[in-house]
Write a structure and sequence with these properties.
Layout (H helix, E strand, L loop, with lengths): L17 E2 L1 H18 L5 E3 L9 E3 L2 E5 L2 E7 L13 E8 L6 E5 L5 E2 L15 H17 L6 E6 L3 H5 L4 H4 L1 E2 L10 E2 L5 H16 L4 E5 L2 H11 L6 E3 L4 H10 L4 E7 H8 L14 H10 L4 H8 L4 H10 L4 H17 L4 E7 L5 E5 L3
Parallel strand pairs: 7-9, 12-13, 12-14, 14-15
Antiparallel strand pairs: 1-11, 2-3, 4-5, 5-6, 6-9, 8-10, 15-16
Helix pairs in contact: 1-2, 5-7, 8-12, 9-10, 10-11
């Protein structure tokens, strides 16, 4: 846990941390393994997370059969709006081949990897390396405590996970049949959007592994559809970056793609033009005075500059500029591109495209 918990801004209330799907799977596997070795389930299970925390999890369901045991934990994501909050995470542990260690299987609601570029190779269950390490550590702990071995097969299930996965980017990443089991630290930090950022990174990885030379990262669905039409890109080339342009660019700096298009609406691109790398409304605002100065640089007269500075928002400012024939969106795209290039700090063909709410291209910089 961090020393200072995040705070809900409207109320000032500290926000609760939660537990990742991987931590829940490790706890369920630990409980099932203990039952497999002793014939009895504990009421709750304590596991050790990668950074040393030792949370406890009640087992909400248990089943024991010949050579296998199954336990379930309900995921508590704290105050994070996690799609899997409240989901049942179930682990079935059965004896495996001697010397094989811990083997992993995808049960109901857990996806299977079908594309290269992800941390797990194609054909494997979508249980990430972090959760696998937590599960293996939990199994080893049980084996040591109860004089057993850790040659087991662990099947992780999340009932209803296939439907939940439709609310995620798993399909685009080539993970079929259900959710990914995620969590490097085991802890969900409220509103950290770790799962979204993870999906951005994995989307870039998948595109690179597929040999794509041009990807487009968009702030929303309208700009994504528009940039796909503009360049005729396959779905695998599309990165749903949302407000996380900084996180996208920083990952691309170390995992480059030859050609990148950043696509978004006018207000989001203006924020980037003004040096903001987190485009969420809680983190940044359009600076209308700076936008007015940008309009002046584009040729606006004093009265238009004053009107833009007093505008109700970026949309009104753009309408004022358009009515005067000032190409404000084009200049915003150019300055946003300069901001992005400074972060990328590499040899990349970078384009910024600005679209209106109807998906029409209204500004562009860096196009070939």
């Amino acid at each position: 846990m961090t020393a200072t918990p995040p705070v809900d801004k409207p109320t000032g209330r500290p926000l609760r941390y939660g537990w990742t799907t991987g931590a829940c799977a490790a706890a369920a596997a630990r409980g099932a393994c203990e039952a497999l070795l002793t014939g009895r389930f504990p009421a709750e299970v304590t596991i050790t997370l990668p950074k040393g925390q030792t949370p406890s999890f009640p087992l909400v369901e248990t089943r024991l059969g010949e050579g296998w045991a199954e336990a379930g934990v309900v995921k508590d994501a704290g105050d994070d709006p996690d799609v899997t909050h409240g989901a049942l995470v179930r682990a079935r542990v059965e004896r495996g081949p001697a010397g094989a260690g811990v083997l992993y299987r995808a049960g109901e609601g857990v996806g299977t990897v079908t594309r290269a570029g992800l941390p797990i190779p194609p054909g494997e269950p979508a249980i990430n390396p972090g959760p696998r390490a937590m599960i293996a550590a939990a199994i080893t702990d049980a084996a040591q405590r109860f004089a057993g071995d850790h040659d087991v097969v662990v099947t992780v299930s999340i009932p209803g996970g296939e439907a939940l996965a439709r609310k995620t980017l798993n399909g685009r990443l080539g993970i079929v049949g259900g959710l990914s089991v995620l969590g490097t630290t085991g802890i969900v930090v409220p509103f950290s959007c770790a799962a979204w950022i993870h999906s951005i990174h994995r989307g870039i990885d998948v595109a690179r592994a597929a040999g794509l030379t041009h990807i487009a990262a968009a702030t929303g669905s309208t700009s994504e559809a528009a940039v796909q039409r503009l360049h005729g890109l396959p779905e695998m080339a599309l990165i749903d970056m949302g407000d996380f342009v900084g996180g996208t660019l920083k990952y691309l700096r170390n995992h480059p793609v030859p050609r990148v298009t950043l696509a978004g609406g006018f207000a989001k691109i203006v924020k980037l033009a003004q040096g903001q790398l987190d485009l969420h409304s809680n983190a940044s605002r359009v600076d209308l005075a700076a936008l007015a100065a940008m309009a002046r640089d584009a040729g606006a007269d004093a009265s238009l500059v004053a009107a833009i500075a007093a505008a109700a928002g970026a949309g009104e400012a753009l309408a004022l500029a358009d009515s005067a024939g000032i190409a404000l969106a084009r200049l915003a795209a150019a300055r946003a591109r300069a901001t992005a290039l400074a972060v990328l700090a590499g040899d990349v063909a970078l384009e910024v495209a600005v679209f209106d709410r109807a998906g029409m291209l209204i500004g562009r910089a860096g196009a070939e």
